[in-house]
Amino acid sequence: MAYKLLKNEGTARRGEFETVHGTVQTPAFMNVGTAAAIKGGISSYDLVDLKCQVELCNTYHLHLRPGDDLIYDMGGLHKFMGWKGPILTDSGGFQVFSLAKLRTIKEEGVYFSSHIDGKKIFMGPEQSMQIQSNLASTIAMAFDECIENPATREYTVSSIARTTRWLVRCKREMQRLNSLESTINRNQLLFGINQGSTFHDLRIQHMIDIAELDLDGYAIGGLAVGDTAEEMYGVIEAIEPYMPKNKIRYLMGVGTPVNIIEAVHRGVDLFDCVMPSRNARHGHLFTWSGIRNLINEKYARDDAPLDEQCDCPCCRNHSRAYLRHLFKANEMLAMRLAVQHNLYFYNTLMEKIRAALDDGTFEQFRAQMVPILGKRI
Question: Which fold has domain 3-273?
């Protein structure tokens, strides 16, 4: 199991990532099924038709509901949710950021109050690895602290030092878990996470430090959480030379189609974001002509497909007028069709990026598509 770099165009990378659950063609976008389901009524079987390669699920949420012990008893996430391809599980580290009012960070780990019922929860590196081992995901993420932006330099220094200590504990615990006969996926992979807010020198040093641990992949965390797009691009450019060339690179929680193209240009291989499904559920659709707000009155009698250049299930069969009607009538079908479209669009975007890298025309693709995909129709 390994990442194989097939070719470069500048810093942009075309590769393959082999896992026990299948080989991922990169660059790739992971479709986010936080609680083992894509919001909007999309099943694991739908995802095959939507060109999904990897699904992402969340450790913290599944630990609370239905419980990782239950999922273990059911044979692991793949069997539980009916998805045969690779699954990446977030470690719960992002909840250290997003549930700031409900948690306390200490050296041993983080004490949470459940956002569901207030129940007290403790999660440290070992607990996160144990939960993810129970889930039997393909890729487990290291437990870290996602630092809020802007952050002080003093706090950032102490936070990333603790995140590094936690990473060492994660690696040790995963090695132990993968050695057990009772472990469902004994080939579970571990990705480390680079942190450091927007301080380039701290980011670089942290990347150097965690690269020495020789993990299966490396993620860039703590971006798109208060920083600007330009600050994010600057961080990627700063640390890219220090990221191992022979390991897959994952930009966490990003982003728009333009963000993805720009990050591929800067050397990133893997992405995830709730944006395509979340925006779709509110009638905001990504198209090859730009971003369309389907709630607008001008679509009330528009019999054209959502996107004439798209062959997703929604665009093949339904008009803008019909989809708008479904949203205005609060029909669940509106969300299902819209989410299908946006996920299909993102996965097709990644296909086009890979094809352009194969052909050596990625920079022309970037120059052509960035002005279009960021435009609101």
Answer: TIM Barrel (3.20.20)
